[in-house]
Amino acid sequence: MRKLMIGGAVLLSLTLSLFLLAWLFPRPLDTTPSWVFDGDGTEINYCDLPDLDGSGLMSDEIPQAFTPGCGYTVFPKPILQGCTEPLSEGAQDIRGLWQSISPHLPDHVERIEQCGDRIVVTAHGLIHDHSPDMLSNDVAPKQIGPFLFCLRVSQATAVWKDKQLNQKLFGGPTVVKRYIQNGVYQWEYPGNGKVKMKRICKLPEHAKTSPDRSHAL
């Protein structure tokens, strides 16, 4: 019994340590390209996708983008602007602007950019910019009593497998899958099940701004 209790205490300690590492670890240097928040991305026609013919920038020529503060307040311009590197082998083209048609997430809108092995998902105040070799550094607001904290919640890589995007937490287990099946874009996330989305060309009014979290701790 004593050994079992000691083992449980060690496991709890390790779990708590990993939790604190994921939530409180300092952010990396912000390398977000200057054009991302120079103006806004609310009036772009997102059905007009660039040709990935290699005539423009390569994906590694564009610095990684990060969520500002605890979330953007105006929908940002495309992060991979000017990038025309063909998609990596095995990747599915899921670029575009998408709106949920699932009843439990009716207002969810997300923009997906791709070039080379980079993929950027912009949605609900957050920017997730990653690749197989590039960790996204995601943040989220957390209300504790009267205080709003902006906490780092995960690091994820993006790996393609069987034409599905596997977003892996800390490069380990898959936490989100994104893909197009039978012409319908969908993603799977624990707790939300399978969310289906339709392609749209213009950003809906409700998705143009997000709550101001600039004063989060």
Terminal residue distance: 43 Å
Give me the secondary-structure category. mainly beta
Bin the strand percentage: 25-35%
Q: How many separate domains?
A: 1
Give the arrangement of secondary structure elements.
Blueprint: H1 2-24, E1 96-100, E2 109-115, E3 118-123, E4 126-130, E5 136-144, E6 147-161, E7 164-169, E8 174-181, E9 184-189, E10 193-200
Antiparallel strand pairs: 1-2, 1-10, 2-3, 3-4, 5-6, 6-7, 7-8, 8-9, 9-10
Q: Can you offer a commentary on this structure?
A:
The protein has one helix spanning 2-24; strands at residues 96-100, 109-115, 118-123, 126-130, 136-144, 147-161, 164-169, 174-181, 184-189, 193-200. With 217 residues, the protein is mainly β. The protein has a ten-stranded antiparallel beta sheet.
Short description:
It contains one helix and ten strands, in the order H-E-E-E-E-E-E-E-E-E-E. It is mostly beta strands and 217 residues long.
List keywords for this structure.
single chain; 217 residues; mainly beta; 10-stranded antiparallel β-sheet; 11% helix; 35% strand; globular
